[in-house]
Amino acid sequence: MRTLPLLAALLLAPLSALPAADDKSDRLAVVTKTPGLVAVWDFVKRERDGAHRFTAHVPPGATNDYPLDAANYIKAYWGAGREAMYADFPQLGRGPFGNAIRIVKETDADFRPFLFVPRSRLHDTPLDIKGAGKSVTVVVWAIRESGNHALAGIWHEGTDLNQKETATIAKVERGQRQYALFAGLNKQGSACGHVSENGASSFLNKYALHKSNSAGQSPEVPADSPAEILDQSWQCFAMTFDHQKDELTGWLNGVSGDRWLDQPKNDKLISSAYNAYMQGHYARTPNLEPAEDATFPKDQYYNPPEGQPLSVKVLRESAEERVELREHRYTKIEVILRGGKEVARHLVALRLNPWWYPHDLYSPKDASSGGPFTIGRVIHSSRSIGFTGWIGGVAVFDRALSAEELKRLSDLRVAPVVTSSPGSPKR
């Protein structure tokens, strides 16, 4: 724990000047009065009767407040491990809105608990954001202890991948991805938005690859840190998909920032997007190129708009040949010209934030082919531990919030000091 004084200094400095609402109801009102709200879970509001599950604050007139069940997806899909209970999610009794749940770094490989709204209770409701012309924003106030995986969303990755973890699986299902917010994935600790047009994979890769990564990355903070450290450690993760702009953007603490990936051809995963770009380019050239794959599916080409370049830099030039680096909004390409005519090109950088996404969100044909809304983890074949830490609020909106709106929501991460616990179950 010798690093805590330094950690405290780093975390206290940027947050001390941020405005905070007077109390948790005022702070919650900032969220509930933001246009487009579908649901916000503050982990304070519960059912009055029955199991007293956490429920969401929803707009006036809404008929579904999305109570959260607890489950262990290893038990559900592999038939191993024990059932999950609310007691498996320790509660803090403090946080941006007055309480928070902990996603624990589980040591039992057969235990991966999450909170969720079953598909049967969300299909075709406002939370089921999908189809033509739909935009979405997901915001999660969290303290990241470790990991880079899912925070919240409709993102059933499927259990049908052929790998060692699925050798003993009892229930095989295709991917049912729509939208979700992750704690970084390929850029650990960033706010990573993830969307899918087909529920399954992208660019012939086995994974879905339409994702964005905020420029900022959250620190790792031990979940058992002293209260004064935790109170100043909240981060606001967010993702927006704006269908009008065809842009998917990650935001950390109200800031998106530019993020590029150089030489995507050499990246373990994004090389598939590189190939999708090149195959789309080859398909538009009159001659069959040596690297062209005539069987590559046309709906998986990845060719962001490249009109007038934002900048052009001459890399080298001779009497016979000119090589230019052209920067566009989503791509940087190296173009070889001979006699003023393009003879070849190479994708040398791909923009990760914002990410160009020209599709609609996956629209399951019925409830049986759609995934649940989950918090803390998602269903997936590799069974990794994923994100661990505290989650103090989850909000979903049916439009892409502006930078100004996300900044207001981010400012709520300065948690008010709470001296007593709501009497929540402890682990």
Structure commentary:
This protein has 427 residues and is α+β, with helices and mostly antiparallel strands. It has two domains: 4-256 and 355-411, Sandwich (Jelly Rolls), CATH 2.60.120.200; 264-352, no CATH class. It has helices at 4-15, 24-32, 73-78, 227-231, 271-284, 403-411; strands at 37-41, 69-72, 101-103, 113-117, 136-146, 150-156, 176-182, 192-195, 211-213, 235-242, 247-252, 259-262, 311-317, 322-327, 331-338, 341-353, 355-356, 373-375, 388-397. Strands 1, 3, 5, 10, 11, 17 and 19 form a seven-stranded antiparallel β-sheet that branches. The longest helix has 14 residues, at 271-284. Residues 1-21 and 418-427 have low confidence and may be disordered.
Query: In this structure, how is the largest beta sheet organized?
Result: 7 strands, antiparallel
Question: Can you tell me the CATH topology of the largest domain?
Answer: Jelly Rolls
CATH architecture classification name of the largest domain: Sandwich
Q: How many domains would you count in the coordinates?
A: 2
The succession of helices and strands, N to C, reads: HHEEHEEEEEEEHEEEHEEEEEEEH
Poorly predicted parts: 1-21, 418-427
Structural class: alpha+beta
